[in-house]
Amino acid sequence: MTKHVAVLMGGWSAERPVSLSSGKACADALEGEGYRVTRVDVNRDLARVLADLKPDVAFNALHGPYGEDGTVQGLLEILGIPYTHSGVLASALAMHKAHSRTIFQAAGIPIAEGKVVRRLQAAEAHVYEPPYVIKPEAQGSSFGVFIVREDQQHPPQELYAADWAYGEDVLVERFVEGKELTCAVMGDTALGVIDIVPTQGFYDYDAKYRPGGSKHILPAEIKPNIYQEVRKLALLAHQVLGCRGVTRADFRYDDRAEGASGLVCLEVNTQPGMTETSLVPEMAAHAGHSFGALVRWMVEDASCDR
User: Fold this and answer.
1) Principal localization (predicted)?
2) CA–CA separation, 154 and 33 (whole Å)
3) Same domain, 118 and 131
4) Which of 10, 106, 212, 242 is deepest in the core (most CB within 10 A)?
5) Which pLDDT tens digit goes with each residue over 100-146?
């Protein structure tokens, strides 16, 4: 019997447009693989919608709060619908950067020096001597991220904005010069490593999603031992958070440092972008998995935690 897959997309986080793109690409590919697909633009009536649809699997193409932080995963657990990507706890831990940093540090995964402060505290005075990075404690797609350079006398005044929508806690980290590296994990296998080179500025929302916003070098042109270290750490980060399915770990690498001492893990994305031009499908293709084969694997890998 043909498996019925509900592709969950959209939602109401700041990452809604990205999620709609991921969801459309995945739904199209799953239909091409022979699945019966229902596209669900997620709203707060999701439980009723899924109870009516009774899908065999939920393909989670949501990004950001509610879709990536364990919330929708908990709903799917209650409904007993197997779903793609990580479960409740792993999703919540990965989304909240302070919690994942604590786990990484305990597991020996290198992280940048940093601490969580209140947004207005970060706005009043430099928490560290520049350069440093300010990022929301639980957001994705580089929303609300600022790199504070040496020549900036004051922190970003955007932090004072009355319509700030990214939470009251921010993570402030020492800025690590060098390369932006990323590595996907598929099940228990780390895929290739990409060196992301923004065409201007840093790897912000535009660089991620605007055509031509960044150049992807795959495989990354780094020393073989560093390449393998990134793969090892990506898989370890996936495992210590308790992730399953597909994830993507992001790193900074100061190639002026000795050995791997310039490498730090920034975060694990449990719901990485899934358009055909996104990073994870690119790494999967490099490993021999077509986009259709990748989403098919994700559906067949779907489960509930309990």
Assistant:
1) cytoplasm
2) 53
3) yes
4) 10
5) 999 999 999 999 999 999 999 999 999 999 999 999 988 765 678 99
Domain coverage including residue 29: 4-84
The catalytic site residues sit at 15, 141, 278
- Contact 222/193 with Cβ under 8 angstroms? yes
Residue 287 structure tokens: 């490993």
The answer to whether the annotation marks 269 as part of a ligand binding site is: yes
Query: Is 278 domain-assigned?
Result: no
Tokens of 212: 């031509």
Number of structural domains in the chain: 3
| pTM assigned to the model | 0.91
Q: Is residue 60 within 8 Å of 11, Cβ to Cβ?
A: no
Q: Are residues 122 and 233 in the same domain?
A: no
Please say whether the beta carbons of 169 and 121 come within 8 A. no
